[in-house]
Each structure stands twice: as C-alpha cells, then as structure tokens.
Amino acid sequence: MSSNFLVIDPEKDLAAIKGISSLARVKLLKELSKRPGINVNDLAQVSDLPQSSVSAHLQVLEKAGLIRTEMQKARKGNQKICFAVYDELVVTFHPTTQALSSDVIEVSMPLGLYTNNNVTGPCGICSVEGVLGLLDVPETFMDPERMKASLLWFTSGFVEYQFPNNAKLRGDRIEQLEIVMEVSSEVPGTLANWPSDIVLSINGREIGVWTSPGDFGDRRGTYTPAWWKLKGSQYGMLKTWTVGPGGTFVDGHKISDVQAKDLDLDDHRSIRLRVEVKAEGKHPGGINIFGRGFGNYDQDIILRLKTAG
Questions:
Q1: Is 55 helix (H, G, I), strand (E, B) or coil?
Q2: Could you list the residue range(s) of the whole structural domain that residue 274 is in?
Q3: Of 91, 122, 151, which closes a domain?
Q4: Cβ atoms 6, 300 nearer than 8 A
Q5: Considering only CA atoms, which of 99, 90, 97 is closest in space to residue 16?
C-alpha cells in the first residue's frame, strides 16, 4: 500500500505546526490513522476526551489540512466522519520547496489533455464534480468535456499524450526522462489482488511493462471527492518511470534495457507518451489513472527532463 506523507517547513507551514503542537491533537491523528472514517462521538470515546474538546481540536486539524471530514447519514440525522490526510508528517529544517535545478525541466499534463485514444469498456472519465459523458462508452473519451478529467479508467487500449519538448526549445540535450503518475488496476468495484500489466511507450518505443498489483478501495482516497461512491476505485500508487543511460526503471527497479538515447528525444519538438493495457497481455487487468483532485496525490501526469549540464 502506498504511503502519503507531508514534509513540513517550520518557517512556512505554521498551521501544520499548530496542528501538531498539542498532545491531544497528536493522539487524535494517531487514532484517525488507525480508524479512518470514525465519527466524532466514537473518536471522543476512544480518545477519552469530551466531545466538545474533540470537535475543537478537529477544527484546528482540518484548518491545517491534516484531516478531512465528511457528512454521512446516520440513524438520527447526519454524522461527521473523519479521515487523516497523511500517513506520516516530517518536520525538516531544510528547504522543502526548492526550485528545480537549471538542468531539470518539468511539465505537468492535465489528465484529460490526451491527444489520442483507443479504449475498451468498462471505461469512463470524470471530473471532481461528476461523471463526464456516458459510462462504458468508448466514444465518450473524445467528448470535449474530457479536458476537465481528474480520473479515467479503461479495460484495455491506450491513451496518448503529447508533451512539449522544452529541452529542444532551449537547445539542450536530454540525458534522462521521468514520468510520474498515480495509477492502479481496474476491476468492477475494487480488488486489491488484481494484477494488470501497464505498458508505457515514448515516441512509439515501448520502454517496459510494470505490473500493478490491484485496484484499491479499502479506504477513501485522500483527495477523492465525497460524491464518488465508496465501492469505486479510490486511489492508486504513485510510480516513477525513469529512462536514462542505464536503462528503464520503475521506482529504482530495472524493467528494461531501453535507454534515453533510444527514444529520439532530441529530434522532435514534442514527446509522445502512450499509457496502455494490452488485451493480449499476461495480466490484462485494466487501468485507473488519477489526476488532480482524485486519489492520494494532488497532481496530474508529470514529465521531467534532465539535460546535459
């Protein structure tokens, strides 16, 4: 299971520092990490604190962005349930928001800005407000509303993105390429043990296969909106594909011998990324791709280029 952590700069993240400055609030965060989705009454009982005190502490934690709350129907009216946003909090005295070094170029691609696709159902796309188009209708993937997409899924096929090659525009040679995105397998409902072979290609060249272990729905994703049903895919794993002089790696584990020099990166003004699940693959278990506003990481698909210094 992926871990979600927050790096706290004590000079800038004063609300977060205030949130963890109370022993009672720290204990509440620990309880929420063990019991996600607990209501305020039960939280007061297990923490041995008055409900009024718990409510006040939760307001501080929510303002700091350390927890999130939802209203759900109860036997009598509604009840507030609580979730910890992060699994770990790290306080550091080193700068936490450094500018990228001059030899690194980064582009964030909104999830719905794919330039080509060919998918099979079950499939769908949605924004943070709701489902876009028709579910399980591949033609919906060409709906102009797809530009708002924050989550997309399909059983087999591909989506393709065209990133600007800003290194070529600067006249720099690319030594290494990284792709970062949050993904999972796709099954009707969710199933943690549901492997799927996810294939990435750059400029028409397959760089390797990574097998997603499953489709995760044991708890609501940190950023997954409240309207999204709990029986649906909630979050994925944040994975980094790196193509460099030594081959292609996923989170440091080598998956192929394809090197950056094999991708013709310096010859084109754009870089084409294809994300694919092949119907004939060993594990054709579908794919969810989570963008900004869904899952555990509030980001879209990131392309990072390291150029020759």
A1: helix
A2: 104-307
A3: 91
A4: no
A5: 90
Task: Classify residue 96: in a domain, yes or no.
Answer: no
Residue 22 and residue 57 in one domain: yes
Which three-class secondary structure state does DSSP give residue 301? strand
Q: 39, 60, 91 — which closes off a domain?
A: 91
Number of domains in the chain: 2
Comparing C-alpha atoms, which of 66, 49, 58, 54 is closest to residue 13?
66
Question: How far apart are alpha carbons 216 and 207 in whole angstroms?
Answer: 25
CATH number at residue 177: 2.60.120.260
Q: Tens-of-pLDDT digits for all 309 residues of the chain?
A: 334 566 677 777 788 899 999 999 999 999 998 888 899 999 999 999 999 999 999 999 988 888 888 777 777 778 888 888 877 787 766 544 444 567 888 999 999 999 999 999 999 999 999 999 999 999 999 999 999 999 999 999 999 999 999 898 788 899 999 999 999 999 988 999 999 999 999 999 999 999 999 999 988 999 999 999 888 899 999 999 999 999 999 988 999 999 999 999 988 889 999 999 999 999 999 999 999 999 998 899 999 999 986
Closest by Cα among 126, 133, 136, 145 to 229: 126
Say whether both 64 and 195 belong to one domain: no
- Count of all residues that appear for the chain in the document: 309
pTM more than 0.85:
no
Scan for tokens 């509303």, then name that residue: 145
Smallest CA-to-CA distance from 153 within 129, 184, 179, 178 is with: 184
